[in-house]
């Protein structure tokens, strides 16, 4: 599986120039109803997303190993 070294250089250059350690998401949490999803990064920023009932739906389930599984459903009209 040969990797295109030219495109690899472009991708790494982009990441090095625009992504810092502070941008790395370090936590993801959601409330018990699945209506709110919060992400936090190493820079101390927190972003909270609220589910829209008329649009795409995301269901979150915890697996037996403790991982969370995201299931995204997008209505045909969206």
Main attributes of the structure:
78 residues, two-stranded antiparallel sheet, 18% helix, three-stranded antiparallel beta sheet, alpha+beta
Secondary structure elements and pairings:
Blueprint: H1 5-18, E1 25-30, E2 36-41, E3 46-50, E4 57-62, E5 68-73
Antiparallel strand pairs: 1-2, 2-3, 4-5
Determine Rg (CA atoms, Å).
Answer: 17 Å
Structural class comes to alpha+beta
Helical proportion?
10-25%
| Spatial order of strands in the largest sheet | 1-2-3
Number of helices: 1
Order of helices and strands: HEEEEE
Largest sheet: 3 strands, antiparallel
β-strand number? 5
Shape designation: extended
Low-confidence stretches: none
Query: What's the average pLDDT?
Result: 72
The rounded distance between the terminal residues' Cα atoms is: 37 Å
- Strand proportion: 35-45%
Keywords: Repeat, WD repeat
GO molecular function: protein phosphatase regulator activity
GO cellular component, one term: protein phosphatase type 2A complex
Task: Describe what this molecule looks like in 3D.
The protein has 1 helix and 5 strands. By secondary structure, it is of the alpha+beta class. It has a domain at 22-73. The strands form 2 sheets. A 3-stranded antiparallel β-sheet has the order 1-2-3, with no helix packed on it. Strands 4-5 form a two-stranded antiparallel ribbon. The chain is extended. It starts with a helix and ends in a 5-residue tail after the last strand.
